[in-house]
C-alpha cells in the first residue's frame, strides 16, 4: 500500500512537470501559483472580517468640526449614510461583490453582508428623496438626492464599464453635496424635515424588510407553508382537521447567505437608528417613542455579537448544537416589534 501511494504522487508530479514544461521554468511557474494561492487564502480570511461598529455621535462631531459647520437637523443621518457607504467600499479588501479574481471570487459571506448593507442604504436614500427632504407632496425633490438614490440602486455586481464602485462613489459625492448645502445658512433650498410622518413612512418599509429576513432565517429548521395551510381550510366545516402545507425550509447552501445578509442589514441599521435618535430627538420625545428607538438599538447591538464559530451552525430548534439563524431571527423579530410600536406612536395624533 505505501508503495502504491508513493507511485501515485510520483505520477502526479510527472503530470505537473509535463504540463508546465518541466525544468526551471516549470518549477518557477508552479511556485508562483502556489504562492499566489496561499496569499489569496490569507487575504480572503482578512477580507472576510466584518467592519467594526463606529460611534455615530463622535463621527458627526468630527465631520461638523472638519466642515466648520453646526450639526443641524439631518446632519447626523446624512453623515452616517456617507460613512456607511464609504465603509462598504473602503473596508479591507474593498467592495468584493463584483470581484472576478481570487480571493474576492472565492468569498461567500462578505458579498451577502455587503448586500444587506446596500439594501438599507437604498431604502433610506429613497426615503430621503421621497419624503424627508420635502415639505409636502407638491414640493420639488432635492437635486443631489435625485442623483444619490438611483446611484445606490445601480447593479451591485458590475465589474467594469461602469464599475459598481464608481457608481456608488457618485452617490456618495451627491450626499456630500447635499450635506454641504444642508449645513450652509445661505442655502435654504436643502431641507431635512424631521417629522413623525416622514419617519413613520420609512419605518413601514423597514418593518417589511425585517419581517422577510426573520421569516427566512426562521425557515432554517423548516416550517409549514402558511399559504398552503390557509388554502386547505374548509370554511364550511370548522371542526375539520387542518391540512398543513408542504414544509418550507431554507436550503443548507443558503443558510449562511441569509445569515450574513441579515448581519449586514443589522450593522447598517444600528448606525442609522443611532443617527435618527439624534436628528429626530424632538419628535421622538413628543411622541413618547424614544424608548422604542432605544429598544431597537439594543436589539441591533445584540445582532452584532461576536461570532465565535468559524461556520454558521444550523442545529435543530431545541437540539444540542446552536442555531445561529434562529438567534439572529430572534434579535430581528424583537427589533421589528419595537419598530411596529414606534410607528404606532408616531402616527398617533
What does this structure look like?
With 349 residues, the protein is mainly α. It is built from 13 helices and 2 strands; from the N terminus they run ααααααααβαβαααα. The protein has a two-stranded antiparallel ribbon. α4 packs antiparallel against α7, α8 packs antiparallel against α13 and α10 packs parallel to α13. The protein starts with a helix and ends with a helix.
Number of helical stretches of at least 4 residues:
13
Count the beta strands: 2
Structural class per helix/strand content? mainly alpha
User: Biggest sheet: strands side by side, in what order?
Assistant: 1-2
- Proportion of β residues? under 5%
The geometry reads as globular
Poorly predicted residue ranges: none
Helix residue percentage:
55-70%
Radius of gyration: 25 Å
The mean pLDDT is 85
Largest sheet: 2 strands, antiparallel
| SSE order | HHHHHHHHEHEHHHH
What is the straight-line distance between the termini?
83 Å
List keywords for this structure.
two-stranded antiparallel sheet, single chain, mainly alpha, 2 strands, 349 residues, 13 helices
What order do the helices and strands come in, and which of them pair?
Blueprint (H helix, E strand, L loop, with lengths): L1 H19 L2 H25 L8 H12 L7 H16 L18 H24 L12 H8 L11 H19 L13 H23 L4 E2 L1 H6 L15 E2 L6 H25 L1 H6 L3 H13 L21 H24 L2
Amino acid at each position: 500500500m505505501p508503495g502504491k501511494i508513493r507511485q501515485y504522487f510520483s505520477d502526479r508530479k510527472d503530470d505537473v512537470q509535463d504540463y508546465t514544461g518541466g525544468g526551471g521554468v516549470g518549477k518557477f511557474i508552479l511556485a508562483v501559483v502556489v504562492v499566489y494561492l496561499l496569499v489569496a487564502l490569507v487575504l480572503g480570511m482578512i477580507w472576510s472580517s466584518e467592519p467594526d461598529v463606529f460611534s455615530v455621535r463622535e463621527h458627526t462631531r468630527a465631520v461638523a468640526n472638519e466642515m466648520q459647520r453646526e450639526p443641524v437637523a439631518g446632519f447626523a443621518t446624512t453623515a452616517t449614510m456617507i460613512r456607511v457607504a464609504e465603509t462598504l467600499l473602503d473596508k479591507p479588501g474593498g467592495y468584493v461583490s463584483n470581484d472576478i479574481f481570487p480571493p474576492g471570487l472565492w468569498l461567500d459571506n462578505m458579498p451577502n453582508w455587503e448586500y444587506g448593507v446596500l439594501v438599507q442604504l437604498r431604502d433610506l436614500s429613497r426615503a430621503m428623496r421621497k419624503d424627508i427632504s420635502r415639505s409636502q407632496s407638491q414640493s420639488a425633490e432635492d437635486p443631489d438626492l435625485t442623483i444619490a438614490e438611483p446611484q445606490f440602486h445601480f447593479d451591485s455586481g458590475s465589474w467594469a464599464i461602469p464599475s459598481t464602485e464608481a457608481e456608488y462613489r457618485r452617490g456618495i459625492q451627491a450626499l456630500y453635496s447635499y450635506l454641504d448645502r444642508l449645513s450652509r445658512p445661505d442655502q435654504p433650498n436643502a431641507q431635512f424635515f424631521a417629522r413623525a410622518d416622514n419617519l413613520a413612512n420609512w419605518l413601514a418599509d423597514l418593518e417589511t424588510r425585517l419581517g422577510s429576513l426573520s421569516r427566512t432565517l426562521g425557515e432554517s429548521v423548516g416550517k409549514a407553508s402558511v399559504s398552503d395551510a390557509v388554502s386547505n381550510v374548509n370554511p364550511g366545516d370548522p371542526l375539520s382537521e387542518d391540512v398543513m402545507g408542504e414544509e418550507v425550509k431554507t436550503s443548507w447552501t443558503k443558510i449562511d447567505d441569509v445569515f450574513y445578509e441579515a448581519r449586514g442589514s443589522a450593522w447598517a441599521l444600528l448606525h442609522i437608528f443611532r443617527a435618527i435618535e439624534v436628528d429626530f430627538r424632538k419628535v421622538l420625545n413628543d411622541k413618547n417613542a424614544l424608548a422604542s428607538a432605544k429598544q431597537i438599538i439594543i436589539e441591533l447591538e445584540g445582532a452584532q455579537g461576536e461570532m465565535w464559530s468559524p461556520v454558521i451552525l444550523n442545529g435543530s430548534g431545541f437540539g444540542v448544537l446552536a442555531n445561529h439563524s434562529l438567534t439572529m431571527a430572534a434579535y430581528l423579530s424583537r427589533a421589528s416589534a419595537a419598530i411596529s410600536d414606534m410607528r404606532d406612536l408616531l402616527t398617533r395624533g
